[in-house]
Amino acid sequence: MTALGRAGDGGAGDGRVVLVAAGKDGAGASTTAALLALTFAEQGRRTLLVDGDDRDGGMHRWFGVEPSGGVGTLLSTAAEPATLVLPVSEALSLLPGGGAPDGPAPSAARVRALWRRIASLYDAYDVTIIDGGSRVDTVFAACLAGVQRVVAVSGPDAVSLAATYGLLKAIDALVPDLPVDFVANGEDESRAKRLYARIRALADRGLHRPPAYGGAIPDDPSLRVRGLQGGTFAALGAQNPAVSAAASCGGRILGALSGLPVRWQTVEPAERAARIAVALRYRPGEAPSPVVVASGERQIADQIRRTALTSEVPVIENAVLARALLNSTAVGQEIPADLYAAVAEVLAFVIRQRALTSMRWKGTATA
Predict the structure, then answer these.
(1) Class for the domain spanning 2-265
(2) Domain spanning 269-366: CATH superfamily
(3) d(CA 80, CA 242)
């Protein structure tokens, strides 16, 4: 995997690109992303809001626009992303979600290619806000395609907070130097800072780069009503408590983004097959989750791949997953809980293989 630091050579440009994500559904990532986008647009910044849900995206209903296609459309057509962007107001535009073809979920490689295409839009805007939701494949692919900063949104409950820390660990393993802000949804500032203190205490012990405090979005029943009934977010006034709080969060984020280069990482096709490899093993009764039995780069990766192929061990090409596992898990260790979702593609594949053969359950993630 080759990392390309860039500031104007053909991918994301000078526009500020922020990914809003959550560790679990219902934590408020979509609401937070919408409010941040409204805030920046109200300040006169040309703002693009991206609904990252390729199957069930519904953010267009919040803004009273009707799409002809969405992010998922790009998975099955050669359409230019710009042709799917809808104007919401003079300064705010929306790339809707939805539109993915029926059938199995797209592979990690297709999701990465999708987000590289979406990144071609960033140059045209001052700020791009991406609603990544809680899907790990979407979050990882967006992180590697032009994102400068991540806003990790947590709800007030303990489960949401734990899931948020899992998200932070997964991002930290994939791109250790990517800045992250913690935002508490549904809480006042005082409670949000207490939640942040708990996350920060864990992060100081377990992450390369702990998150910064991004702020709080107070609970607002009117937002839930709008989301459920299709009311337009664009009609929210600046005096709305959630809008006012989002403006404060947005100010922190834009201030932190000043002067930061855009991140652009990609996988060179010629290097995919043998640059990184991680071999996994699962034996019921031996460990509750898969164990890393070998990992490495370059020549070591070549040997792991050759051994897997000659031993008839299933091999899956997934550069993002391979890198995350290599950075986070030593040989002999179980896959960490926060990467369970990321390894789901491998697990699903080997489960299918196990159903067809009597071989032991093994899998190798490579890049």
Answers:
(1) alpha beta
(2) secretion proteins EscU (3.40.1690.10)
(3) 34
